Automatic annotation (TrEMBL):
Keywords associated with the record: Methyltransferase, Transferase
Example of a GO MF term: RNA binding
The keyword Lyase appears for this protein: no
Record domain tRNA/rRNA methyltransferase SpoU type: where: 85-220
SUPFAM superfamilies (alphabetical): alpha/beta knot (SSF75217), L30e-like (SSF55315)
One GO biological process term: methylation
Coiled-coil intervals: none
Boundaries of every MRM3-like substrate binding domain copy: 4-41
Species of the source: Candidatus Uhrbacteria bacterium RIFCSPLOWO2_02_FULL_48_18
Family from the record: Belongs to the class IV-like SAM-binding methyltransferase superfamily. RNA methyltransferase TrmH family.
Protein name: Uncharacterized protein
Length: 224
């Protein structure tokens, strides 16, 4: 059975404030726990908690039988800058999209900066990222620092957006280090007007691509 301290900690880690305060997060299932590796500090089994308590914490319809308590990685801007492609999320709100893009960064050797986006330490993002939270260099940036950070990165900026005059995704096939800005699902990019607009070419009968799908195509162009 769980101790009172364990129950309190689990309750804390269900909230963003609690995760920020403790520097810890929850990871679900043996595969994710394995991916998190040395970051995992404790593993709890369904037998320790009881099925009812366990299902309250789990975010899937068919919960795994183990949950890990892991230390949230502490990356720096210098870590992020080592990647030739920095994906800059500007208010991307859906945890599934943020997790999917983090997973893409893992697959296409990119790093990530988040501004006012879904919390990367939430279980939904971690699950969608396939554990990318522990492997992809990323920082969660205060909006007041966003423009200065873009200047500090000191590399060409590309804005993934559908607008008149936007270039084809082929312009991303460059050896230069770049920043690729991905905007909010509904309102697009607001953090800066600088940079080159890039659109993913597709049939006109399709109004737009899902943000994660568009990012996948852009990163593939960068990688190949």
């Amino acid at each position: 059975m769980l101790t009172n301290n364990q129950r309190k900690l689990l309750a804390q880690l269900e909230t963003k404030k609690g995760r920020e305060k403790t520097g810890l997060c929850l990871v679900e299932g043996p595969k994710m726990i394995e991916t998190a590796g040395k970051a995992v500090q404790e593993v709890l089994h369904i037998n320790d908690m009881g099925a009812r308590s366990f299902s309250k914490i789990a975010t899937t319809d068919t919960p795994q039988e183990v949950i890990g308590i892991a230390k949230i990685p502490e990356w720096t801007l210098e870590d992020v800058k080592r990647s030739k492609t920095v994906v800059f999320l500007d208010r991307v709100q859906d945890p599934g999209n943020v997790g999917a893009i983090m997973r893409l960064c893992l697959g296409f050797d990119a790093s990530m900066i988040l501004v006012e986006s879904a919390d990367p330490s939430s279980t939904k993002v971690i699950r969608a990222s396939a554990g990318g939270l522990f492997l992809v260099p990323w920082i969660d940036l205060d909006p007041s620092r966003a423009r200065d950070t873009l200047k500090e990165l000191d590399r060409p900026i590309y804005r993934l957006e559908k607008r008149p005059g936007a270039k084809s995704e082929s312009v991303l096939a460059t050896d230069q280090s770049i920043v690729l800005i991905i905007g909010n699902e509904g309102s697009g990019i607001s953090i800066t007007r600088d940079g080159t607009s890039v659109v993913i070419d597709h049939e006109a009968k399709l109004e737009s691509l899902n943000v994660a799908t568009a990012t996948a195509i852009a990163l593939h162009v960068r990688y190949r």
